[in-house]
Specification:
The structure is a single chain. The protein is an alpha+beta fold and 455 residues long. It has 20 helices and eleven strands. The strands form four sheets. Strands 5-4-3-10-11 form a five-stranded mixed sheet. The chain has a two-stranded antiparallel ribbon with strand order 1-2. The longest helix is centred in the last third of the chain and has 26 residues. It is globular and about 85 Å long.
Amino acid sequence: MLKAAPPPGSRFKGYESFVVQNLVFRPHVTRYRRERWRTPDGHTITAALPAGVDGHFGPELRRFILAQHHQGQVTVARLLAQLRAIGIDVSKRQIMRLLIEGQEGFIDEARDVLRAGLIDAAWISVDDTGARHKAANGVCTQIGNDHFTWFGTTASESRLNFLDLLRAGHTDYVINAAALTYMRGRGLTGPVIGALAEQVDTHFATPMAWQAHLARLGITSRVLRVDTSRVPGGGAVLQLIQDPVRIATEGALWGSVKAHGFLPETVILSDDAGQFDVGRHALCWVHAERLVQRLDTFTAMHRTAQDHIRGLIWWFYSDLKAYRIDPTPRRRSEMRTRFDRIFRRCTGFTTLDRLLKRLHANKDELLMLLDRPEIPLHTNGSENDIRCQVTKRKISGGTRSNAGRDCRDAFLSLAKTCAKLHVSFWQYLGNRLAVPASDDVPLLPELVTSRCRAA
């Protein structure tokens, strides 16, 4: 309470509040003197540390380091300089240990967030970006929706790697009805499918067990074949033969996804990258229109045709947004008819006409919204989510160990999920690290499940 110096005769009119926020930021070092006793039989007994003391760095400091590095995108070098300036006696190696060692609980919770989303989400959107790991180029894949986000880094952006991520930590391969349907849809030959379907063994716990099973059945990879029968004069044409091992493995991975209850009726929304084309698949309208926008035009007729088609597409897009709010069978039929009129046009601009024909071939995926109005029209959410990985790559480069890679992906996943669930990441870290007087934060997978079911 602050006193004033009023002149004589003044009347007291109460108080006026004035709030000033500040931050107390200083090291707090505790030195424990632990009794040591030598027992008659020669053993040494040392007094136990108080509850919550784990190592030479307290939970509040560990929370600060994790929040600064993952949420604040502060590099280890700058974090070291910052802590030493405050008065913390710490080395760069010790900071790395605090960031990586003993984080299995966070990694498991991030994995369980993915599992909850894959089981209960009506839709998920996916995207990927480059990532460096062990001095090699890789790919970081984002999976999420309005209630959760998960990141996973793999060596490449193949469909095999994407299906592996969709298993959410499981390592088994399963031959079931879903796996066989997948193989038929990818054009795997009947004898190979029959050989896999006739076997008693349908569950394989490890990649080695699965590869051994394929070897016993005589299913091997094929390479490019030289075919000279079609070329006059004996010229050779390389014709790609489908790899049965790859397709069978993709099918077994998809069988594992379904066996664990993931993606029951879930729609996967993507930007038309081939590796994401699995299950119920929908396409982003923004990326589809971008193909038209980026066409090179050389004449006034080309530019006029391009502008006209873009106008029709954005008009159709705005009506799709209105349809999401009030879907009816009549409007659904009208939208399908309008789609055909737009993408079956002949503009005279050859490149544009070919593109329209290609987009029309994706009609079912572009119009998935008509049957599932809850899914979005674009993958903007995924692109926004994955920016933190892009920022991390630009600031910190790549990771050197598998543990470092897993921690980076897990903590960025948890931070993004907390933001979507309106949970403070700072409070979340405090609760999980047992910071005294920290607020209670429920398990994130349980929150994801409840939000997805209520959506």
